[in-house]
Amino acid sequence: MSARVMPLRRANGLRLLDLCCGAGGLAMGYYLAGFDVVGVDITPQPNYPFTFHQADALTFRLDGFDLVHASWPCQHFARVTSWRGSQGNHPDLLTPGRVRLEASGIPWVIENVPEAPVRPDYLLCGTQFGLNIRRHRAFETSWGGGGDLVAPCWHRPGLLAFAHKGERAYADAMGCTWMTNREARQAAPPAYTQHIARQFLTHEGRAAA
């Protein structure tokens, strides 16, 4: 298991464990909300901007964190997988992952595509945060949602659509400027988890950054 620390890391007493972290799009949102972030992924993530451990997210120790975020792989549930291949070729990690989080006693967040079996305590789109993209993600939380409201989706003309031809512009519009094009294909905007983190802090009676 390898680990490294990048300069963006800051210690302020709040620790976030980012399971199946990818290149860190959602991790950045938690960082902006005031968390010290640690990421875990089974594959190397050379551009992850915080402390990183290459390890199995289903077995990595959860203790010592204020909040655990998990972006279990979505391919088993995503409609695009059935269009381009077979969903059966991708394991369901979400189901055993949720069981593990529920048993931990630690507050948690699960993020996935809207068609996944995730309770949409927060269903977010880029247009709700002033981003020029349409990208829906569902978030199930241990505290059940609530908190500050965001504006409804506004799928106006001119929004950037995800396509390989223009994926650099799409990645930058998400706010994932440090990633490669390929890494950004699996990412979601930091604005989503900056919002989620603030709802968690309000729920816990703690001040946001």
TrEMBL record:
InterPro entries: SAM-dependent_MTases_sf. GO terms for molecular function: methyltransferase activity. Keywords: Methyltransferase, Transferase. The keyword Methyltransferase applies. One of its GO terms (biological process) is methylation. This is DNA cytosine methyltransferase.
